Amino acid sequence: MLVFKMDTTNFFKHGQKHEIRITLPRDKQKVKTNSGGSGVVNRRGPDNLPTSHQHRSSHSHRRGSSGTVTRHLIDSDTRHGGRVSALHNRDSSPVKNGGCVKEVRFALEETKQEASGVRSSEGEGSLSEGSSRGSGSTSERRRKRQTNKSSRRRHNDQKVLLINGRDVSAMTHEQVVNFIRASRECHSGELVLTVKQNVYLAEELEEPEFQYVPEALPNSVSVGVSGQTAPLHESMLLLSEGLEAGSLVAQFEQLYRRKPGLTVTEARRPDNEKKNRYRDISPYDTTRVILTNAVSGDYINASYVNMEIQGSGIINRYIASQGPLAGTCTDFWQMVWEQQSTLIVMLTTVVEQGRVKCHRYWPRLYETVDFGTLQVTCLKEEETPGFAFREFTLINTENQDERHITHMQYLAWPDHGVPEDSTDFLNFVAQVRQARTGMVEPTIVHCSAGIGRTGVLILMETAQCLIEANEPVYPLDVVRSMRDQRAMMIQTASQFRFVCEAIQRVYSEGLVKPLAEYQQR
């Protein structure tokens, strides 16, 4: 088998053809040995550089307009005159390019060589390393042959199309070798190989399902069947490593922002466009909240978002909404009434950086405001540096039905970015979860656009519920589920990192733990 071994890591591109010129030694009779009798061959190469142990020839290729890159090849077998074992620089130091050295070779094998035990090396190192069979058991030799076959499938990814401009695809191995030998006698003494990079699709191998196994487990970590770590703990280890490496946030940035194939036709209708706070943030037609008795029509910029907690049978129901505009406050309260919601969670202030983020849609303490047929009265208001809690009564003036509404507002989110510390946010989420206890009606959650901070809160509560159910927490999967129901949920990478760090904190500090009924899993 005639093998030319060269560094083609940055040389080939799939499907491209390249010419490789190799100067062949033409007169072997002029080779002389050293006077020391060591048998070392001395010969002047093409660049008048001395070589040792083996013949040296030149190898050059062109790539684009960057000029000619010249390399020197070492001949390991003078029987074929052009056979080379490794690629070397001018200083005879091995070429290293990421540890990858590829081969340009003929796929036809020489039967005589295999019969005599001479094999060319498929991996790194010289051809001479593979030329000896060595001692060892029959099973060991069989194992090596299987390894060589496997290696041949992986690395044999260049194809010789032409030799000195002549098609060799129909030639036998012997004809190819004779043709190459004849090239030594031609005037130029050059061997021109036209090679092409094959596109190789590796066979898919079955791999065991991934499982992260740490070197040592804390005493508090539960261990499942067969000594395997609990899936919850594995997921939290992966979360921690993903945050540290930055890979988790990088994957988040690659997620689709809108689910392909879902339409927003109703949001784009001329009568409805004025009801959107932002032109590019619209509810999907399939998950939008439809008003039934609103005077202005059935459209409101709000979406159903249902989050299933695996293994518990719990489904947390939300309505993710934009902050009401001055002209949509009546629609907002109509939605509260029709959906029978009793909890509203607000994650923005009315004004941030001098811009109105949400219209004040509720009355001041002890005041009453009418919104169409609905009447809202503020009965209670408590405000701290980070939170505001309010109690409303909502009365339908047509039939005098009355409901009590809890309004919880988070005030500590900064105008820029995310909170530096998650303590206040986690305390707020804990109070929201307490207020939701036993609730089956959807909780209305809104910020300004109804996607960024709204998505952060829903992801945070979903993660805590999964921890309590002793189920693994994969934030990227939760984001996908949310975006399948409302576009662009969790708007920025900084928001995603913030909530992931908060999830990691509640688990590592034991702020949220698996409930007793789920700990035996």
- Principal-axes shape call: elongated
Number of helical runs? Answer: 11
CATH topology of the largest domain: Protein-Tyrosine Phosphatase, Chain A
What is the number of strand segments? 23
Please list the strands of the largest sheet in the order they lie side by side.
13-14-15-23-16-22-21-20-19
Task: Determine the strand fraction and express it as a percent band.
Answer: 15-25%
Oligomer: single chain
Low-confidence stretches: 5-15, 27-136, 150-156, 199-229
For the termini, the CA-CA separation is 60 Å
Give the helix proportion (percent range). Answer: 10-25%
CATH superfamily of the largest domain: Protein tyrosine phosphatase superfamily
Count of all domains: 2
For the record, the CATH class of the largest domain is Alpha Beta
pLDDT averaged residue by residue: 74
Q: What is the second-level CATH architecture of the largest domain?
A: Alpha-Beta Complex
Please identify the structural class as seen in this structure: alpha+beta
Q: Work out the radius of gyration.
A: 36 Å
Q: Give a short account of the largest sheet.
A: 9 strands, mixed
